[in-house]
Amino acid sequence: MAQSKTDRIFHALRQRIESGELAEGTKLMSLRQASERFGASKNVIVTVYDKLVAHGLARSRRGSGFYVTRLAPSIAEPTNLREASDTVSLLHVQLDRPYTVLAGDGRPPESWMMTTMPAITLPAGEGGYGSPHGLLALRECIAAAQVAAGITTTPAQIVTTFGANHALDLVIRRFTRPGDTVLVDDPGYYPLFSKLKLAEVNFVGIPRTPKGPDPQSLEAAAQKHRARLFFTQSLAQNPTGCSIDLPSAHAILKVADRYEMLVIDDDPFIDLPGVRGTRLAALDQFRRVIQIGSYSKILSPSLRSGFLIAEPEIAASIAELKMILAVNSSSHTERLIAEVIRSRRFEKVRTSLRRRLDREREDGVERLERLGFRPFAPPDGGLYGYVYLPEGLDDMEVSHMAAQKGILLAPGSLFRVTGRSDRPSMRVNWSRVQDSRFYSFLRTLG
């Protein structure tokens, strides 16, 4: 993602300090010299130097200036933490919201989401921490939704979490150790890559096609790396918007059986109607599939509530790990969501969201194609699409150019395992591409 001038100068100086080019005790340029050298205001340089001090890379001497110092070993930032942080720059700007046009954002507009939640009073006995599996009332609602979709599920197979990302954290903590190798979609969910880096787990990309992960590549990688886990998304994948078709789903599960591999299906649109494709759990019935779901894309990301479904023994072990790490999730939030589902408000919200998304997606695809921007494949529903940029462009540089105009783009490189796209591309959010400034900018690329 495009960096601010402050960040660019900070990282340039940080690299020189950490490489030894600027040795300990070296005096940094004066504010005036640095301002001229980097073409920035003195206020920007002050911010950069303060940031170096905060990171233990410099110290200030009153009346003398700033000098290079070194981090004490006990507080040095671990390499895996630094690498993980560097890959979530897009997430940073989505949270900080410094842009006016949010074509690359990961969520629907707040105005599309549920703006009024029912007031609730917790029943007697629900004021404590509750079961580590989560609130039974919500787990019953989740189980009923799976049964309605033809997937046999009981509340004992469900663990509620603080959102889908928390569920991914629990799976990684439960099933991996530093040095292990897992398999992931490529392009795929970039925050997952950061989590794996933080856990010091190696990950190998499985090419994502318009019909899902390539089964032959999956088998070759499973055999070569003896991977225990494969992270994927069945429906309306982030970033491509494409789902797994039935033949690919069968092939993926056969590979999982042959190599005794668990498949982690992280589906943020599990409750969105009208998404085409085949859910792996519909074929597997949770023998080897662990399903992750979320309410962030349907109700509100502020609720921070999601869930995990697995076979009972795995669910029990995940619940125990959740208890050790966080005691429990919020029964108050889970009661609120359960009430929304039971009152049928949830049905109205998700049906309305589908209608709006279908309309905006159709219009967005048409407008992009008129400008010559071809999608990776026709999206199967959901929030996202993956769009190719003109050949010869660098999608990171395009993102930087857009940022200068207040437009947030999501460059395809961020979603690739290698950090680079073989073709310049971007992820678009169909609920965010109505602004004419977005299309005006794209015309300048043609």
Mean of pLDDT: 87
What kind of sheet is the major sheet?
A: 8 strands, mixed
Number of E strands: 13
State the separation between the terminal residues, measured CA to CA. 21 Å
What does this 3D model show about the protein?
The chain has helices at 5-18, 31-38, 42-54, 79-86, 89-96, 136-148, 164-175, 190-198, 215-225, 246-258, 280-284, 312-326, 331-342, 345-370, 395-403, 436-445; strands at 58-61, 65-68, 158-161, 181-186, 202-209, 212-213, 229-232, 262-266, 289-294, 306-309, 384-388, 410-411, 425-429. By secondary structure, the protein is of the alpha/beta class. Mean pLDDT is 87; it is low at 72-77. The strands form three sheets. The chain has an eight-stranded mixed beta sheet with strand order 3-10-9-8-7-4-5-6, sandwiched between helices. It has a three-stranded antiparallel beta sheet with strand order 11-13-12. It has three domains: 5-76, Winged helix-like DNA-binding domain superfamily/Winged helix DNA-binding domain (Arc Repressor Mutant, subunit A, Orthogonal Bundle), CATH 1.10.10; 85-111 and 348-445, Aspartate Aminotransferase, domain 1, CATH 3.90.1150; 129-344, Type I PLP-dependent aspartate aminotransferase-like (Major domain) (Aspartate Aminotransferase, domain 2). Helices cover 42% and strands 13% of the residues. The protein has 16 helices and 13 strands.
